[in-house]
Design goal:
By secondary structure, this protein is of the alpha/beta class. About 25% of the residues lie in helices and about 25% in strands. The chain is built from ten helices and 21 strands. Strands 1, 2, 5, 6, 7, 8 and 19 form a seven-stranded mixed β-sheet that branches. It has a five-stranded parallel β-sheet with strand order 10-17-11-12-13. Helix 1 packs parallel to helix 9. The structure holds flavin-adenine dinucleotide (FAD). Flavin-adenine dinucleotide (FAD) binds next to helix 1, helix 2, helix 9 and strand 20.
């Protein structure tokens, strides 16, 4: 072990959740020594990838140097966490550092399992197989849309938790709109092949999105889980989750949302629940076995839809409770499961879904948010990115 350091608060992950918490801690308790462990040189605003895949922005707009988002006064340990010992209160990194902590915040995101679908690794990035779920591939989605001259366009959604449950369908609505503008829509069959049972979990938005799907003439195949891709013959293979049937669908364009899971170093740590997520109390965000550990965002066990919008509401709760616990006070801040999914339904159209743990709408605006609106599109395109870089990551929103 090359070095031994100790911090009052150690944050694992410098993505949306880690930076938001670091910035809030700096504001609330500047006397604390806070460090962020983050291996990446680049910080991504991933919600923009939906618009990048549809040609609205170049992908470079979605990223900033990590150094620019680490709050002043917070130490950046440019390394990857590899092992956690919550009894001894240290984290070991891939670079061999052992870092001690008084309080640990786990915010290491979700692992996109590109290797979980046989054929995906070979196919992705060429011959019509694309995905918005990686910076590396997202501009290829836009190329696929531009090059598409008709045929079968299939958009998949896997079983299990993913980040932004709406993103697999958003790019499909944009593709439909793009093909119409290009004048080729009558030569296209668009299919949403999803492991889910329905288009959206919250009834109010489900009803609205079913109307969008009917209007656009999109085919839906629910309970269809992508199990393999055969790039040579351009076949996507699905398993029907109720009947067990194997279904092969020919594709000319295949947008894949891969299965996802917790980062491996967390899944094998004592912090994990049975599924590998960091097991925290769903309202206080405190770990259920280790009181000096908190978690939020995609890597946490919080039973809500994994989004940056959810992180925006989780971070202030976590910081308030961590500081209370540190002072021996009761944990009074509560997270209600708030999450949001801005479902883009075309260029210039968006349904802003917002809901809580009970799938009750928790809307911000005084109008019916299940209606497609241009104003909400502008919010997604300009308002939310601005709020992200200048508000949330600065600990202000
Ligand atoms: P991330 O922001 O992914 O950050 C995790 C960080 O942990 C990364 O920086 C990573 O490098 C780091 N890390 C990984 N392993 C280690 C390790 N071993 N040690 C230390 N650090 C590590 N959300 C919305 O709210 N609205 C949307 O419209 C929306 N659309 C989306 C569209 C797409 C295509 C995608 C991909 C995501 C979208 N999201 C959206 C989801 C949103 O981006 C995530 O939910 C959010 O980024 C979660 O924050 P996080 O900090 O938990 O994870």
């Amino acid at each position: 072990m090359s070095s031994a350091t100790r911090h009052h608060v150690l944050i694992l992950g410098g993505g949306t959740a880690g930076i938001t918490v670091a910035a809030r801690l700096r504001r609330a308790a500047p006397q604390l020594a806070v460090a962020v462990v983050e291996p990446s040189e680049v910080h991504y605003y991933q919600p923009l990838w939906t618009l990048v895949g549809a040609g609205v922005f170049p992908k470079e707009v979605s990223c900033r140097p990590e150094a620019d988002v680490i709050p002043p006064g917070v130490a950046w340990i440019k390394d990857a966490a590899q092992e956690i010992d919550p009894q001894q209160q240290w984290v070991r990194t891939a670079g061999g550092q052992q870092i001690g902590y008084d309080w640990l915040v786990v915010a290491a995101g979700i692992r996109v399992r590109w290797d979980a679908i046989p054929g995906l690794m070979e196919a992705i990035g060429h011959d019509g197989v694309c995905s918005n779920y990686a910076y590396q591939y997202v501009d290829y989605t836009w190329k696929c849309l531009r090059d598409f001259a008709g045929g079968n366009a299939i958009f998949t959604q896997p079983s299990g938790a993913i980040k932004c449950g709406g993103a697999p369908q958003k790019i499909m609505y944009l593709a439909d709109d793009y093909f119409r503008r290009k004048g080729i829509r009558d030569r296209c069959t668009i299919t949403f092949a999803s492991a889910g049972k329905q288009i959206f979990a919250v009834e109010k938005y489900r009803v609205a999105l079913e109307a969008v799907i009917a209007r656009k003439g999109i085919h839906t195949r629910f309970r269809h889980d992508l199990t393999a891709i055969r790039p040579a013959s351009r076949q996507a293979v699905f398993k029907h989750l109720d009947t067990g049937d194997v279904i092969e669908l020919p594709y000319d364009l295949l947008h894949v949302t891969p299965p996802m899971g917790p980062p491996e170093f967390l899944a094998r740590s004592p912090l994990a629940d049975a599924h590998g997520w960091v097991e925290v109390h769903k309202e206080t965000l405190q770990h259920v076995r280790f009181p000096n550990v908190f978690a939020l965002g995609d890597c946490s066990s919080l039973p809500t839809s994994k989004t940056g919008a959810a992180v925006r509401k989780q971070a202030p709760v976590l910081v308030a409770n961590l500081l209370a616990a540190r002072q021996g006070r009761p944990l009074t801040a509560r997270y209600n499961g708030y999450t949001s999914c801005p479902v883009v339904t075309g260029y210039g159209k968006l349904i802003l879904a917002e809901f809580d743990y009970d799938h009750r709408p928790a809307e911000t605006f005084p109008f019916d948010q299940s209606k497609e609106r241009y104003s909400m599109w502008l919010l997604k395109k300009y308002g939310l990115p601005w709020m992200y870089w200048h508000g949330m990551l600065k600990g202000r929103l």
